[in-house]
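re: that complex we talked abt at group meeting.

here r the seqs, copy pasted straight from the sheet so there may be weird spacing, ignore it
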Amino acid sequence: MPPLKIENFIKNSVLELSAYKINEVESGEALKLDANESNYTLSRNIKKKYADFIKDTLINLYPDSGSKNLIRLLEKFYGTAAENFIFGNGSDELISIILLSLKKDVAVKIPEPSFSMYGIIARYNDLKTEPVKLDEKYFDLPENISGDKTKDKNSKKIFFFSYPNNPTGNHFNRDIIKNLLENKNNIVVVDEAYIFFSNKESFIKYINKYDNLIVLRTFSKIGLAGLRFGMLFSGNKLINEFKKIKLPYNINSLTLSSIEFFLNNFGEFDKNIKKTVGQREKLYSALSKLDYIHVYPSDANFLLVRLKNKNLKNKFDKFLNANNIIVRSFTGDMELFYRITVGTPAENKKLAGYLKDFGAL
Ligand SMILES: Cc1ncc(COP(=O)(O)O)c(C=O)c1O
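got the structure back, here u go
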């Protein structure tokens, strides 16, 4: 029998992709600072109460994502009515739902650099992506981003703004975002995955003012990455369309129970968020003292650093590898950059020590 001709079935945009690579860590020895997770584990007391709470979850039934208790807690937490949010299996799934719903002539505008999934998902949905180059010094959006003065004035666009931006750690200019929202040829997605670590106000309160605004949130970065729970907020018009394509039981029962429990015990996370912000500033000053890297200020739970001398790249990569330090590295224009998650005090101290040693080599 002849082999299957995969290209007769699978679209080119998928054939051209490589599978997303996740760093696998073998032992607990590695300094794992690559995925912007929280490295704080639950306190013993909370762990016990949590186990007690979820043990009665009815896993024999399909999940009830309309559970009154959970909905009421989320409405209160985000100050929004339930009709204006949907849940996703992580905000990744919500990015996918947004992009799945779009017509092919909507241009997907993505800052560069930013979170890679926007572009990956757009491409396998056969949408055209258009990079928005950030300014090299502060990584802000260009003033002329709206393109109003160009011939494509009426073309439809969707903008994805990670706010604060991954991997640069800064917030984009709010006025530029608001100007884009004033133009109904645009949809603007404000992805607030890291907003717990910043002191900027959420855009959620504008969803009823701007019907072309979508806000994404997640609990992944504050200590619940394993639960996979994200939320999409939007005015009625857009959200009613997304509700049609969201799979009915996309969030499992254990996650729903867990979120209910943790919203009732949010102090556990508040404490760690504050610690992370304090640690970020400490790590920022420690790394700023090293003369071979430049450290960028950050409002998120990670720091972006750049090697000042490109001749150090190979040696630095080898050093990280030899010492089991896992951080996010990049390719192409970004090859001298590294994104480092802010870890626990012990991890940050260890990391700062290693990076100081490298400077002395
Ligand atoms: C900007 C941004 N948005 C969304 C996500 C995905 O989050 P989730 O775990 O909710 O899928 C990430 C994860 O790294 C991110 O950096």
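couple things i noticed - The chain has two domains: 6-43+268-360, 55-263. The chain has a mean pLDDT of 95.
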